[in-house]
Design brief:
By secondary structure, the chain is of the alpha/beta class. The chain has a five-stranded parallel beta sheet. It starts with 9 loop residues before the first helix and ends in an 8-residue tail after the last strand. The model has no long low-confidence stretch (mean pLDDT 95).
Length: 147
Amino acid sequence: MTVPPGARSIAEILELARDRLVRVTPREAHAEQSAGAMLIDIRPAWQRAADGEVPGSWIIERNHLEWRLDPSSDARLPWVTGYDHRIIVFCQEGYTSSLAAAALLDLGLARATDMIGGQREWAAEGLPNAPAAARAVNVAPGAVHAG
């Protein structure tokens, strides 16, 4: 197989994304959430149904993320009023969230980052986790409840 000029592997793309982030642990994310940071869950409904949800987080599925969090977008969430929000993105294991957080940096959201280890590590550390049926999260337009 011939690799096209300029092509990068996903490992390289992930490394470049993470080089731009100051990633946080689940415990740090929990403390920051308590202080007003927005935790953004980009996992699909089936993963949230299987593994639970972080109470108080925002469900913004990956395909809507930039539109919901870009302060200049007509599709932004009402609370997105500027570029200074502390946004911590998480996924199941902390890979896709790194790519997503880097995209938020590209939008000018300089305080965006992601959570190391994702939902799996959050739950393993015994941090608050609710079954999807509890509906303890905020669901952005276009996302679906898992429970």
